[in-house]
């Protein structure tokens, strides 16, 4: 959506409700959220109306590989660093990451939310919860 402050940063969403207008809104919202961090990141959002719910691992893997085959020329550490969102968890990130690695023979800084053995964060599963707690603590200080 906007990379004025730095690389695009936002989530990938796989859900039947995904369409262009939703992605535009979420991309704009991501700019606002990222600007609050004061880190040099823009905002973006991507996705598909593919629904991984109820699909086999093979179906999800094939979709993620096809998706990354098209997406790979638009992502990278200095361009766009997607993360998971609704419908895109550790399994999907793993498939996306594996395909990117196969296609580009490069793998630094391309996706967040990866498994620890592929360079992901040890604290990733708890990160959102800790963010909520830190926010609540800050709000309580002012009251």
Automatic annotation (TrEMBL):
Pfam families: ELFV_dehydrog_N. GO terms for cellular component: cytosol. Residues 1-101 form the Glutamate/phenylalanine/leucine/valine/L-tryptophan dehydrogenase dimerisation domain. GO terms for biological process: glutamate biosynthetic process. Its EC number is 1.4.1.4. GO terms for molecular function: glutamate dehydrogenase (NADP+) activity. It is an enzyme of class 1 (oxidoreductase). Keywords: Oxidoreductase. PANTHER family: NADP-SPECIFIC GLUTAMATE DEHYDROGENASE 1-RELATED. Belongs to the Glu/Leu/Phe/Val dehydrogenases family. This is glutamate dehydrogenase (NADP(+)). It comes from Giardia intestinalis (Giardia lamblia). The gene is gdh.
